[in-house]
Amino acid sequence: MGIVDVVSEFCYLPSTQHRHIKKHKQLQTVEMRVRMDCEGCVRKVKKALEGMKGVSSVSVEPKQFKVTVIGYVDPAKVMRRVAYKTGKKVEPWPYVPYDLVAHPYAPGAYDKKAPAGHVRNVVADPAAAPLARASSLEEKYSSAFSDENPNACSVM
């Protein structure tokens, strides 16, 4: 060991420049259902969201009770903020377009309150999912009489 090594051990200073790497939030579209009865409710919801950090745009459709928020935000925080600031019940947007559901008129999927061209999202709802999906036995029977199946029954 040389003199330089001995001196360097005594003069060791820990590095104080630790850089914390922040993860940037992804651009998200948050859709939620909030019951709004009047223009005052619409204004209150918009005001609660426009003051939030990371929000790029807010659109409100009062007839459908739909609020859409686009920005670099956390969906859970957005929903909590609307519920806290307005005192209203907030839930994620429960509807999807009609074309995305295999059996849109199944008891769990069809909803009279849904906007035109939309049905309830049964893929995300585990309670209604078995009602809206065909079982393997049902698939066999329906494909047996299908025109697209070359081995189908020719009785029809």
TrEMBL record:
Residues 27-91 form the HMA domain. It comes from the Eukaryota. Gene3D superfamilies: 3.30.70.100. InterPro entries: HMA_dom, HMA_dom_sf. GO terms for molecular function: metal ion binding. Keywords: Metal-binding. Signal peptide: none annotated. This is Heavy metal-associated isoprenylated plant protein 27-like. It comes from Ananas comosus (Pineapple).
